[in-house]
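Mods, move this if it's the wrong board.
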Amino acid sequence: MQGIGNDFVLMDTIRDGAISGDVALTAQKLCDRRTGIGADGLILVEKPTSGLTMRMFNPDGSESEMCGNGLRTFARLCVDRGYASGSFPVQTGAGILTATVFDDHTVSVDMGMAILSTKAIGMSVPEADRFVNQDIGGGLKGTAISMGNPHLVIFATDLTKIDLSKDGPILEHHPFFPARTNVHFVQIVSDSEIIMKTWERGAGITLACGTGACASAVASYLNGKTTRKMKVNLPGGSLEVEYLENGRVQMRGPAEYSFEGTLSALLEQSE
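Not the wrong board. Structure tokens:
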């Protein structure tokens, strides 16, 4: 499935049972675009005791706390297979989030609170209530936001001049972020619209990042560049994001199927 070009392999353990073997290795094999299926991540659809649970693994095998575009695909699959309807809670590594699936196949997600404190984000800098428009070296200033996972947002006047393949991996491993970070370069279009490019932690350049879109929207507002509600344009499509006055973030966008199939030999090699 994919959400504005951010694509995922979803494995339904409720219907098909838990996968055997090393999940991290399975994610690496399935997400490989040459020898596997190819994806920006592996999502496990689970219901361990009560409620629906989403687990997300990056192409390098690391487990991510959350993925906004992935959560939308998860939510649509759960509704289509009768596991949920309307608005329902989903347990993620970033806590319980509420998803709502609409008839037009778009999904809105209450992404929870935007986390601003450096300590809560997990940064190795002096403790502060927020890290907004701060010097990060190399002549750059950045804003740090966590949406359950860390994000570094940098504003640019012209995204065409950004070499993401060069700057992305360096900033992902920035010393301010011991657990690494997602990196986003943002260009302001108007006070209600932005454009962004993304380097995702553990995945590299992707067409979209839902939590990154939320973090970029929050950063744009905190830097006085936009209003609270805006259109976020990514290479794979657009999302509607609103940074509410209570500090929570709402996101809405599409969730689509690419194909469905059955795996055999590839998974056996992961055991």
